[in-house]
Write a structure and sequence with these properties.
The chain has about 475 residues and is mainly α. It is built from 17 helices and 6 strands. Helix 6 runs antiparallel to helix 7, helix 13 packs parallel to helix 14 and helix 14 runs antiparallel to helix 15. The longest helix is centred in the first third of the chain and has 27 residues. The termini are far apart.
Amino acid sequence: MGLGCTEDFEDINTNPNQALSVQPSLLLRQVIYDYGEQMSYEGFTAGDLLGQYRTALDFNLFDRHDLKSPQLGGNPWPILYTNLRDNEQLLNQALENPTLRVYEGPARILKAHMAAALTDMYGDVPYFEGFQGKQGIVSPAYDAQEDIYLAEGGIFDMLEKGIAALENYEGTLALEGDILFQGDLQGWLRFARSLQIKFLMRTSKVRDNAAALQALFDEGGFMENNAHNATFDFNAGEPNNFRLARLRIGDFNNFVLSETMHEILTGLNDPRLPVLFRPFSNSEAGEFNGLLNGIDATQNAAVLADYSLAGTAFREDTSSLDANFMTSWETHFLLAEAAARGLIAADAQALYETGVAQVFAYWNTPLPEGYLTTTAAYANGNPLENIITQKWIANIINGYEGWIEYRRTGFPRLKTIAASLNKDLIPVRMPYPAEEQALNAANYEAAAAKTDGNSINVEVWWNVPL
């Protein structure tokens, strides 16, 4: 058969003893890498704008909160669905072929992780029928976010079943293609338990999750230190370096330090400022300068040399950057919040201080002596705000996490942007993309009707004031 021939290709290349021809190790690696790489890029170019870590100088409709007009970033929908679809193939292989059962736990855990990212951004989305194109479902129904979290086959159920699959695995096949934990099943168990804590906290304003959180805290087995983090390292050079190192300099130069991030870091006298950003070019004394988000570039064009670009780790040498799925420091901040809110019996200050120390190590920055007893002291002002703000700082380029957690908690205190295209409101959900209206019209229309015409100002299920 010639290289260009496609006749009977599917029949010839189908293994009757295996659900799909793609090796599970390749699928696992592909899902982890593609999702991590693409969402890290989305974090830099879009998530960090919504979270007010950085500001766009031009091509900035998204930064002005016209979220229906993604430009250099801002359309995570296809990233999430592509990887959820591929992960579903992996899960089906594991369920249909007993020799591949080692992949079941990781596939379930990744499904829960990615599904939460999807629904936490958009609200109601196609989920239970959402990844079934091979089964002929091309117009999937939208499911309520509450069901995506709570129903059988939903996020919490996926985590429970993923944990059970790992704990009950008795096979001899090694987990290959695992660039998060190099085949260590205990790493996946810790990952799953930390995700349980995360999603219990995320839904803690609409459900009584205190007992479940206390049980997880008492039992342990979640991420305890940075060696347990669910991350993979970018390289210094191609092909596996951070994407902003490969794009043209004009794209990189479009993003500068935001005024919000600048004020928070300088208010803390925080040594991570020169790690995450660099002095602006017109500075005579190595100073930093941030720009208020959402400028109208047609009226008041900003001068690049007056503002601080991202640090060298984001372009010249990206080997110190990670694609972040879940970390020990995020786990400790979540538990600190739970303790501060009285959801668990634990030492909130100790959990907070452990989280801060782990973040500084994660960002390769020495923790200054006295930092935790002065500007960043747990009881300096509002402890809950301190916890969330430290988590927010650390979550730079971590997809849309800083914005999602701001929506849930109200911290840190983001600013009214300069030239809003959304009536000076900070969006509380992403809009369904235009292709959904074209390709899944009836289901899209029903979902849009529930969100005031696909409005970015309609709260998702779990988002009620603290």
